[in-house]
Design goal:
By secondary structure, this protein is α+β, with helices and mostly antiparallel strands. The chain is built from nine helices and nine strands. It has a six-stranded antiparallel β-sheet with strand order 6-5-4-9-8-7, with helices on both faces. A three-stranded antiparallel β-sheet has the order 1-3-2. InterPro entries: GAF-like_dom_sf (IPR029016), HTH_MetabolicPath_Reg (IPR050707), Tscrpt_reg_IclR_C (IPR014757), Tscrpt_reg_IclR_N (IPR005471), WH-like_DNA-bd_sf (IPR036388), WH_DNA-bd_sf (IPR036390).
Length: 254
Amino acid sequence: MTSHSGESVISRVARILAAFDRETRSMPLTVLADRTGLPLPTTYRLVSELVRYGLLERDADKQIRVGLRLWELSTRGNETLSLRDTALPYMEDLFESLGCLTTLSVLDGGTLLYVERMTPTGFSLDRALVAQRHPIHAASSGLVLLAFAPADVQDEFLTKPLRKYTENTITDERTLRRLLAEIRKQRFCSAPGIGTPGWTGMAVPIFGAARQVVAALSVVYESGTERPREAVPALHSASFGISMALGVKPPRRS
């Protein structure tokens, strides 16, 4: 079924669900209508249906928020969440060993998506949050995933204009291609300040079915406190363990 504008019901529902984010977890109906650009009567009707099925909830103050049923459905048979569950014990060991921010991320829709994060007490960096998206070329994890992505994915990404987030963000296509080749060879990336000044990310790939890279494992240090001699072997050991737990023996490093 489509509206008079030609937009399908599913498209409008997707706009409603996408209106919620980490900063705005609940909102009144009028704000939701404004954020989606949908007419208020349409928003009311669709929200009422979504509340009926538990995908959204309406609290005592008439605030609308994401429903528990939506979370329940999203966890059923989701490969990324299964990957997260497999990786967690190895991430915990890595976190305990190094004591720094530890993340697990995947590529999704042309961006980097963080699916797990372990944070030291008092850690001040508000990036790389769970369910947060980040530009691929502005994170060590993103560069690792791009380095092992299919050639057509690389070409599509590298041939478009890239935003420079810091003075260290690499946006030149040739320079990036050389860097990606080096990452594939070393199976490791260290990226000082490419996304946020003052922080250095170190990342390695995780291999899944058919020895394809399915995720990246990373640790983040405040600049000047990096311990690569300790971090690099620990990262490789953890990623090897996760890959083996996924039923895949990673190929040898060149």
